């Protein structure tokens, strides 16, 4: 490939990128929905254009506050119960670990062979 061919390829790539950008800008410009909102005060005169008033519901603060309090009480009761269960579980685990340690601490009696070795020494050396 000569330098002349690579220059042509570079020019072709630039042209394709430019066309792509132009198409993207024209597509985004056609999305205009011609929606205008403006705040109208009570004393302002309204024009003959279409005007819609949106009524927003009044918030029921007492109901939501009561619901939040009840939800909080439920969560605290669940946390208290799970904490109690966790404490009981840990207590049971500690109790079983203590019992298993008590079993390990009980030493079995030494076999007679050990007593013989203490009295006579290792086998083969007492001649």
UniProtKB/TrEMBL annotation:
Residues 56-127 are annotated as: Disordered. This is Secreted protein. The keyword Signal applies. Residues 56-71, 92-119 have a biased composition (Basic and acidic residues). Keywords: Signal. Residues 1-29 form the signal peptide.
């Amino acid at each position: 490939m000569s330098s002349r061919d690579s220059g042509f390829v570079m020019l072709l790539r630039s042209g394709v990128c430019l066309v792509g950008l132009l198409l993207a800008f024209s597509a985004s410009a056609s999305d205009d929905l011609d929606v205008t909102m403006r705040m109208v005060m009570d004393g302002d005169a309204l024009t003959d254009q279409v005007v819609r008033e949106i009524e927003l519901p009044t918030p029921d603060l007492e109901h939501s506050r009561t619901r939040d309090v009840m939800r909080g009480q439920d969560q605290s009761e669940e946390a208290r119960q799970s904490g109690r269960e966790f404490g009981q579980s840990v207590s049971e685990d500690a109790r079983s670990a203590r019992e298993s340690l008590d079993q390990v601490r009980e030493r079995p009696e030494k076999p007679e062979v050990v007593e013989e070795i203490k009295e006579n020494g290792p086998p083969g050396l007492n001649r």
